[in-house]
Amino acid sequence: xxxxxxxxxxxxxxxFSLYNSPFDAHDEGCAIDLYPDGERAPSPVAGxxxxxxxxxxxxxxYAAEHDHLILIDTGDTVARLLHVNPAVxxxxxxAVGDDLGALVRAGFFAPWVPNHIHLGxxxxxxxxxxxxxxxxxxxxxxxxxxxxxxxxxxxxxGETWARLDEPAHPAPGDSFVGIAxxxxxxxxxxxxxxxxxxxxxxxxxxxxxxxAALAGQHVGTADGRTVAWDDVAVLANGEPITGxxxxxxxxxxxxxxxxxxxxxxxxxxxxxxxxxxxxxxxxT
Length: 284
Fold this sequence. Notes:
Blueprint: E1 3-5, H1 7-10, E2 15-17, E3 32-35, E4 40-42, E5 47-56, E6 66-73, E7 78-82, E8 84-86, E9 93-94, E10 99-103, E11 117-122, E12 137-139, E13 143-146, E14 151-158, E15 161-164, E16 176-179, E17 190-195, E18 200-204, E19 211-214, E20 217-223, E21 226-229, E22 232-236, E23 239-241, E24 243-246, E25 248-249, E26 256-258, E27 269-276
Parallel strand pairs: 1-12, 13-16
Antiparallel strand pairs: 2-3, 2-25, 3-11, 4-10, 5-6, 5-9, 6-7, 7-11, 8-10, 14-15, 14-27, 15-26, 17-18, 17-24, 18-21, 19-20, 20-21, 22-23, 22-27, 24-26
């Protein structure tokens, strides 16, 4: 059975994603990334701290050398939390919302990924230090699909990402939204994941859609809520980019375009297109 994250827990964070990661722990939506405001990590779970462990992170010029694992016994499961420098110790009891420590920008992150808490769950009798084989995660909050035609104006960005003003959140802060799965124009759930730069993605809110589409283009095949991306390429104003980061957000929404050295600036008008990758093109 999946572990369900309550609406109240989710509303501690401005964004979440089950599939927007290249790591095996997120396969089939068996982990969730939670994005808090600020530099501290409010706990998404309650229970007793079992252990904390420092681990070596992949070397990245923009990231910390080490990451950290926090294990919390929730009573029914053992929660695994990453990317937080622990301010808690084994034997302590924490409640939802308690400060777990400072967020860590780890070498596991792609350069366009903001700080967040990685959360997964293991059965009590399973090895809690392993990520693979974790339990599926579900969310107890409705996510509203918002349609996007592939256009927008850059309103924020950096060297490796740009956020557009579209699709806009209809009521920022009040609910979570995601870019609609544009199959037949009926908003069959919302898309989650890195298209196409991570091997697959998710489709939240409609386990029976069977297909995934974005900006008028078929982009993948859904098996339940898990999507296998098609062999596609994403272009911004005709220029290839790495892809689109797809997530569920309640603030600061809008399509997020990502790529090394992305050449977009605030104020630029952008049209995003998704095309079938050319034969023999391994760039995506």
